[in-house]
Amino acid sequence: MTASAPLDWRYLFRLALGGLFIWAALNKIADLNAFAGDVHNFRVLPLAIENLFAMTVPWVELVAGVALVANVAVRASIVVLGGLLVVFLAAIVGALVRNLDIACGCFGTHDAETTGWITLGRDLAFLALAFLGYPRGSRAERLRAPAANLETA
Questions:
Q1: Quick check: 11 and 133 in contact, CB under 8 A?
Q2: Residue ranges per domain, the chain?
Q3: pTM value?
Q4: For residue 64, how far is the Cα from the chain centroid?
Q5: What percent of the chain clears pLDDT 90, i.e. is strictly above it?
Q6: CB contact burial 114-137 (16+ within 10 A = b; e otherwise)
Q7: β-bridge partners, 103
Q8: Closest-CA residue to 35 (of 121, 112, 92)
Q9: How many Cα atoms within 13 Å fall on the side-chain side of residue 32?
Q10: What's the N-to-C CA distance of the chain in angstroms?
Q11: How far is it, in rounded angstroms, from Cα 67 to Cα 60?
């Protein structure tokens, strides 16, 4: 009889964050032109790189989200998504400060949500998911932990 390793509760946070980013990425990829328009409306990037940003970010979100759900390259994926969230938060704060009445574009064109305090709070909650889901300890410690549980059973 083999004992399975206990489920790491941090994986639940990673699963939620990964699923959210997969959903957001797929909606953006489905209509890159609309997402590029949303990026343009924030008026924070030079025109020359707005389209590059709009075409690249959803794919980065998708790959990092899939990696989190699959529990692969967890640290790198959380750092990437956390970094994107910080960028998104800065853009939202900038829109709030400048009183821009624009669609967020966070979950693609179906979002149609105006950028505001709710959007800011939601992205802060997503950043909290990234923090709570970040694996603690070294890889060697995490690999030893299930073996230590088996020895004490």
A1: yes
A2: 20-133
A3: 0.80
A4: 8
A5: 52
A6: ebeeebbeebeebbebbeebebee
A7: 114
A8: 112
A9: 11
A10: 12
A11: 11
